[in-house]
Amino acid sequence: MIDLSAWKSRAAALGAVTALVWAVSLYGLLADERLVYALAVVPRRFDRLAGILGAPLVHGSFAHLTANTVPLLILGGMVAIRGAAYYVTTTLAIVVLGGLGLWTFGRNAAHVGASGLIFGYFGFLVGRGYYERSLSSVAVAILVAVVYGGMIAGVLPRDDRVSWEAHLFGLLAGGLCARAARGRR
Questions:
Q1: 20 three-state secondary structure
Q2: Which of 34, 68, 113, 170 could form a disulfide with 120 if both were Cys (CB 3.0 to 4.6 A apart)?
Q3: How far is residue 57's CA from residue 51's CA, in Å, rounded to a whole number?
Q4: What is the pLDDT of residues 130-163, one digit of tens each?
Q5: 8 Å CB contact between 114 and 99
Q6: Which residues pair with 41 in a beta bridge?
Q7: 83: phi > 0 → left, psi -120 to 50 → alpha, else beta; which?
């Protein structure tokens, strides 16, 4: 029998993260543009360490926000299947590890957006298939690689307006989290 309360908590966690991203981004875009820069990661500036947690919540434009929403929901939802606490823990770990990598090694610019987290989910789901090697994890990894595999090109520097570093360190953080989480529910 399906445990509806467990599915509701998973959906609530995913919805809460997505709603938080939308609420903070819309406030920054519509009411206080200074918030976008205030929550950005600016590498190697100690006064901008808060951007490690804040940057995924703010976006530079409405188009940027909407472009990140669908993969945030789909890939985040695939992580959330294992449980709300699993999803929240994985999300925070990817944000912190990826953000620290970006803060340490990124180019001197203001980095914003949830794409680092999205790349982290991608790396986590593919990595989980590799490390766990269960039928379900491998099937999810293959599905994610087929549907979203083209996004790997986003870790290459191509456009100064795109934080390829956030993509790269999010992807690496996701892979590290998959290794750390193998066998855990």
A1: helix
A2: 170
A3: 9
A4: 999 999 999 999 999 999 999 999 999 999 999 9
A5: no
A6: 111
A7: left
Written as six digits, the tokens of 18 are 């997505």
**pTM of the predicted model as reported, rounded to 2 decimal places:** 0.96
| Alpha carbons 178 and 160: distance in angstroms, whole number | 30
Q: Residue ranges of the alpha helices (H) in the chain?
A: 4-26, 34-38, 51-54, 62-80, 84-105, 115-132, 135-148, 164-181
Q: Tens digit of pLDDT for each residue in 77-126?
A: 999 999 999 999 999 999 999 999 999 999 999 999 999 999 999 999 99
Separation CA 178–CA 147 (nearest Å)? 19
Place of tokens 């590890």: 97
What single-letter amino acid sits at 96? V
Pick from 75, 122, 62: nearest CA to 98: 122
Give the tokens for residue 62.
Answer: 């409405």
Q: What domains appear along the chain, each with residue ranges and CATH number? A: 4-181 (1.20.1540.10)
Residue type, 15: G
Nearest to 120 by CA among 63, 64, 71, 50: 71
Mapping DSSP to helix (H, G, I), strand (E, B) and coil, where does residue 147 land? helix
**Which burial class, exposed, middle or buried, applies to 128 when counting CB atoms under 10 A from its CB (0-12, 13-18, 19+)?**
buried
